[in-house]
């Protein structure tokens, strides 16, 4: 009996390791560059303008009571990246801003065509955080766009769920692993997209907003999330049910 239990554990670990490798390959193969048309870029610009209109805390950074504000404008790398992302550069399909709040407890979220018909992206209004709100919302937006860009990984997971090849818990954990990969890219995104703007306007970057979410060990990172009814079960249990056709 002990031998049988050990074999089951070993097989389970092998399956998880094999699936982690599949996700790594999907992550690497899903290119971060693609062709977008002038019309796509116009769409992207409209989405960014709508996002900044709905989330004014992302449009202006007030450095202090007596300081001039810092604006994110069309000439800034972070703005241009957002336009191209909404234009569909990373997924080959246009993404739409959704002004509604993400699900409870999430700083940002997105939906995918396979489950909802369109790519929709939401960012929580965090103005109650005061001066921190500006960077919290931008970092959350960038991280969520990185998540959207993992098209192949999400499609593979949804297909396996649909075929009944994964339990709900396995699906949730695999989705969290995709996001863990994305969090690992955040320091580079801060350096290339955010820091040039911050240096220009004199904004002191809060590294924790870009780097504090990631740990080198996936299991240790995942173990941080212990509360019932929060991430990663929110939102991935719902995605699992949609992939399985169990929710309308």
Helix content: 55-70%
Using only C-alpha atoms, the radius of gyration works out to 19 Å
Number of domains as seen in the coordinates: 1
Q: Strand-residue fraction?
A: 5-15%
Q: Give the terminus-to-terminus CA distance.
A: 43 Å
Low-confidence stretches: 1-32
Structure class: mainly alpha
Helix segment count?
Answer: 11
**Strand arrangement, major sheet:** 3-5-4
Average pLDDT number: 83
Q: What profile does the largest beta sheet have? A: 3 strands, mixed
Element string (H = helix, E = strand)? HHEEHEEHEHHHHHHH
Set out the fold topology.
Elements (H helix, E strand, L loop, with lengths): L1 H28 L8 H17 L5 E2 L8 E2 L5 H11 L7 E3 L10 E4 L1 H4 L2 E5 L9 H16 L2 H12 L5 H17 L1 H16 L6 H4 L6 H5 L10 H12 L4
Parallel strand pairs: 3-5
Antiparallel strand pairs: 1-2, 4-5
Helix pairs in contact: 1-7, 2-3, 6-7, 6-11, 7-11
Molecular structure report:
This protein is mainly alpha-helical and 248 residues long. It has one domain. It is built from 11 helices and 5 strands, in the order ααββαββαβααααααα. It has a 3-stranded mixed β-sheet. The protein has a two-stranded antiparallel sheet with strand order 1-2. A hairpin with an 8-residue loop joins β1 and β2. α1 (2-29) packs across α7 (168-184), α2 packs across α3 (77-87) and α7 (168-184) packs across α11. The termini are far apart. Mean pLDDT is 83; it is low at 1-32.
């Amino acid at each position: 009996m002990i031998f049988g239990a050990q074999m089951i554990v070993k097989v389970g670990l092998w399956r998880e390791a094999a699936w982690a490798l599949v996700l790594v390959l999907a992550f690497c193969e899903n290119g971060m560059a693609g062709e977008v048309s002038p019309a796509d870029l116009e769409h992207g610009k409209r989405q960014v303008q709508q996002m900044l209109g709905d989330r004014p805390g992302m449009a202006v950074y007030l450095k202090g009571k007596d300081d001039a504000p810092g604006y994110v404008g069309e000439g800034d790398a972070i703005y241009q990246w957002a336009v191209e992302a909404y234009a569909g550069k990373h997924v080959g399909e246009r993404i739409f801003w959704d002004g509604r709040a993400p699900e409870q407890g999430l700083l940002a979220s997105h939906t995918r065509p396979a489950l909802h018909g369109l790519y929709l992206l939401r960012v929580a209004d965090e103005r109650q955080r005061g001066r921190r709100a500006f960077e919290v919302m931008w970092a959350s937006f960038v991280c969520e766009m990185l998540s959207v860009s993992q098209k192949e990984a999400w499609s593979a997971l949804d297909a396996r769920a649909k075929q009944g090849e994964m339990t709900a818990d396995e699906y949730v954990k695999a989705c969290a692993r995709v996001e863990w990969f994305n969090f690992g890219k955040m320091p580079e995104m801060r350096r290339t997209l955010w820091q040039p703007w911050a240096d220009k306007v004199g904004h002191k970057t809060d590294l924790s907003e870009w780097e504090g979410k990631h740990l080198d060990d996936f299991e240790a990172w995942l173990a941080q999330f212990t509360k019932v009814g929060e991430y990663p079960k929110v939102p991935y249990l719902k995605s699992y049910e949609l992939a399985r056709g169990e929710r309308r």
